[in-house]
C-alpha cells in the first residue's frame, strides 16, 4: 500500500459489468457482508455493482497477501466479527487490494471473475453476530418533533444538548433487508379509555436511522477516549427501527421503550466502511452557535472538523394500491445525516465513558434522522403530525401509519461533486398482518 | 425416571462431605455452571456442597445414559446454552441421575468421587453466553419507593399494574460473582447547578434482583403463551444491577437508564433449576385484592396458584472498616421474592407478546425486590431515603452510598418446613476506585 488512498478516485473504472455508475456499489464502495449463492452455503463477500465477490474463494487463489489476506482469513463463513475486530489496518489493506483486482485493466480479471455471483440470485444475511445493540437519539429535529407530541410543554428535555441520549435495544430481533415484519400485538390505552386493551398495533411506524458497526472495542472498565473513537467504528448501514407508537405511549414511562421497538429492526446487509464514506465527511453541523459546548470527554478538534456526514437519506413507501396500479413508490421524505446533533465518535466515547465495553459486531443506531421540514421527517408520526394529517398517495390511498402489505424502503447515498456516488444499499421490508 | 420426583426429599443424604446441611447446595439443589479447576480449562459442572462435579468427565465414564447423557453432551465446554435449549426433559433427567449418583449409599461413589473438585480452588465463569439481557421492574415496593424520590407527586405510574414494565439492559458487562466493579464516571447535574459535570459517580448503589435464565425460547413473531411460559425458564440466579443514581437522574429521560446501569452487573454463577426451587413455589401474592386483573394474555390459573416464590433475600455489606475490625458484614436488608408484582411466567409471556424472540441463555432480571419496610430495601437509595438517612455500621462508619473498597453480598434461600434449604449461591463484588 502507498500512503495515499486512491480508492475513492472518481476516475476509477471497474471491469465488472454495471459497476460503473451503480448508485450504491461502484468500485469506490466495496462494502463487506455475508451471503449465500444458489447452493445455500454462507460465505463472506464484497459487493461490486450488482455482483458479489466471494472472499474465501478469492483468498484460495493466492491473489491476496499480507494484511489483505489476514482480513479475508478472519472473515468468518457466517459472520464478520473477527474481521471487524482486526481494526482499520487489515480492513484498508483488503479494500485497497480489492480495488486493484476489480479495476478496469487489472491483469487478474480472468482469475477473479469466476468468483463473482449475481446479487439478485443470492441471499444476504446479517453481516455479523450482533452482541449488543444500542439506539441513540441524535436527530435533534426528530427529538423536537416527538417531544412536542409526548410533552407539548417540554419538547427538548434539559439534558438533550449535554448528553448523547441513548438506550439499549434488542439484538435478537434485528433482521437483514427483505425479511418481512409482523405487526406486533400489545397493550395500548386510548387517553379516554378506562383500561388498556391488548391487540394489534394500530400505529405502526418506521424510523429512518443509520447503524454503526463496532470494530475492535474496549475492555470493561476502560473507556475509549474521543480521539480514538473512530478507530472502533468498522462501518455503517441503514437501520429501520420499527416502532409501535400506541404501545410505546402506554409502556414507555419510566424506563423507556420496550415492546414498542423490540419486535423487529431491519438493517441493510452491507458494512460500508469508513474508508468508502471518507469523501462525505463534513464539519459537525447540527449544533447551532450558542448551544452549550460538549464536555471535554466529548470534544475533539478533528472530530468537530470532520466527524459528521453529508449523506442524502430517503424514505420510500410501497402500498398495495401503488403496486397494483403500477405506480412508483411514494417518497415520504428526503433527509440528511448532517442532522445528527452528536457525531459517531461522540456516541462511541459517551457509550464507553463509564466503562461499558463495546465488542466487535455490536451495533449502534443513531436515532431517527429527520430534517427541519415536514418533507424531511424520518418517521410517520412526525410526517403526519401524530396521524392527524395523513399522507396522500398517487393511488388515492391515505396513510397515517403503516398498513398490512405496505413496504418501506430506506436509502442513503453520498453525493459529492468530483466523487463517485456511494450508497449504503437498500433497507426494505414488508408489513405482515398480526398473528391471530 | 419414575413419574414422582424424589429429588427434593429432605431425607436425602449425600456421600459428598459437607453437602448435607449446606446452606446453598445440598443434594436437593444440584445447580449447573461452568468452572475451571487449577488447570484453568473451562468445563461444565454441577455444585454439591463445597465441591463441583465435572460433567464431561462423568459423561466419559458411561454413568449417564439416555436424556441425562444428552444433557451432559449438550453442555458446552465454555457455556451451557445448548443444554438450556433442550428444555425441561433432559435437564430433569440429568438432575435425577446426579441425585442418584451423589446420594448416600450409591454403588457408584468410587467411580464419581474422582471428578469432584474443591469449589474453593476453582474459578466460576458465566454459565452461558448471554445474548440479550432484559431487566424488569416487578418489585412493587421498590417501584413505589423510587417513584417517590423521582416523582413525589406520582410514585406509581398509571401503567404499573397493567404492564410488566421492563427495558433492555447491557449483556456485555455482566460478570460472575467475585469480579470487582469499577466505579463509573459520568455526567451528573446537581439540582442547583447551572451545568452538568463529568466525574466519578458519587451515588453508587446496588440492586437486589433475581435473574431468570431462558431455555428453549421462541421464533421471532411467535409469542409464548402464558400457559407455556414456564417451559422456557431454565433456571434462576442472583443479580446485582449496580446503579449510579446521580448519572441515572440526569440521563434517564426520556428513554430510560443507560450509562447509569451498563458499566457492570454481577450474577451468581450457578443456574439453579426450576426443579430445585419447586418446593418454594407459592400463590401469586403481591397483587392486593381490588387491583386490576391481568389482561388475558398474562393470566393463567396454574400460574396464579403457584407462580410466585417464597425465597428469603439478603443484602450484606462489607466495608474496609468492618473488615479491619474483624466485624461481621452489615446486614442491609432482608427481603423476599414474594414481593414480585408479576410472576416469572408473566415476564416471559409479556416479553414475547409482540413477537420478540427469546433465545437460550438470554437473561431476565426481575428488578429490585424490596419489601414493604425500611429494613427490607433492595437498594441503598431506598434504605437511606436518597442518602438523607445514612446506615450506621458497627465499625462507626456511615454509608449513604457505596464507597471504594466496599463489598456487597447478595443471598437468596428457600427455607421451608419439611424441605432442605436450597440457595442460589453467592453474588458478591467489591467496588474499585474510578479510573483516573
Automatic annotation (TrEMBL), chains A, B:
Swiss-Prot/TrEMBL cofactor(s): Ca(2+); Mg(2+)
Encoding gene (name): fahA
SUPFAM superfamilies: FAH, Fumarylacetoacetate hydrolase, FAH, N-terminal domain
One Pfam family cited in the UniProt record for this chain: FAA_hydrolase_N
Entry EC number(s): 3.7.1.2
Binding-site positions, Ca(2+): 135, 207, 209, 241
Binding residues annotated for Mg(2+), in chain numbering: 241, 261, 265
NCBIfam families recorded: fum_ac_acetase (TIGR01266)
GO biological process: homogentisate catabolic process; L-phenylalanine catabolic process; L-tyrosine catabolic process
Binding residues annotated for substrate, in chain numbering: 137, 151, 248, 252, 368
InterPro entries reported in the protein's UniProt record: Fumarylacetoacetase, Fumarylacetoacetase-like_C, Fumarylacetoacetase_C_sf, Fumarylacetoacetase_N, Fumarylacetoacetase_N_sf
Domain Fumarylacetoacetase-like C-terminal residues, every copy: 141-429
Annotated spans, Disordered: 176-196
Enzyme category, top tier: hydrolase
Pathway linked to the protein: Amino-acid degradation; L-phenylalanine degradation; acetoacetate and fumarate from L-phenylalanine: step 6/6
Protein name (database record): fumarylacetoacetase
Organism encoding this protein: Methylobacterium nonmethylotrophicum
